Amino acid sequence: MKTKEVIEFLETQSEDIDWVIQKKESKQWRSLAQNRTWYKLFWAISKHLWYNIQEVKIYMLSWCFWTKKLKMSKEEIEVPVISNTSDLTKEQGIFFIDTIIAFAKIKNVPVEITSAEIRNLYDSYKK
After folding, report:
1. What percent of the chain has pLDDT over 90?
2. What angle (nearest 5°) sits at the alpha carbon of residue 77, between those of residues 72 and 83?
3. Which of 5, 22, 40, 109 has the fewest CB atoms below 10 angstroms from its CB?
4. pLDDT tens track for 19-31
5. How far apart are CA 38 and CA 32, in angstroms?
6. CA–CA separation, 67 vs 21, rounded Å?
7. 51 and 72 in contact (C-beta within 8 Å)?
8. SS3 letters for the chain?
């Protein structure tokens, strides 16, 4: 609800009810163009290094943001602390983008990412 709608609603309510209102920021969703750019980067690295796209993503997230031990039953495995790019903060997102682009350059991954696409990725983390 918008602020005006909330005020109008509350004005029509009984006086003997206490209301608690909490403002919550809504999450910004990535656009299809931003998702395509992520896929383009992961796909290019995957194709060049012969790894599955999901493996590339998990490797890069683990490399940038560490791993933690997850113990289930008798087995213990390492998992990324952050496993989804959508869970990154603004600073983490920008660091992650820069790291992937630098990694692609170091490994001579043939991928063309325009400055507009990079800016668009940065914009996906403005919060």
Report:
1. 19
2. 100
3. 22
4. 777 665 555 566 6
5. 10
6. 38
7. no
8. CCHHHHHHHHHCCCCCCCCCCCCCCCCCCCCHHHHHHHHHHHHHHHHHHCCCHHHHHHHHHHHHHCEEEEEECCEEEEEECCCCHHHCCHHHHHHHHHHHHHHHHHCCCCCCCCHHHHHHHHHCCCC
Angle CA(93)–CA(97)–CA(99) in degrees, nearest 5? 115
Q: Which two tokens stand for residue 88?
A: 């990154």
| Residue whose entry in the numeric block shows the structure tokens 């820069």 | 98
The residue type at 21: I
pLDDT of residue 30: 63
Whether residue 53 contacts residue 46, with contact meaning beta carbons closer than 8 Å, is answered with yes
Q: Which amino acid is at 46?
A: S
pLDDT at residue number 120: 78
Q: Considering only residues 91 and 33, tell me which one the structure prediction assigns the higher pLDDT.
A: 91
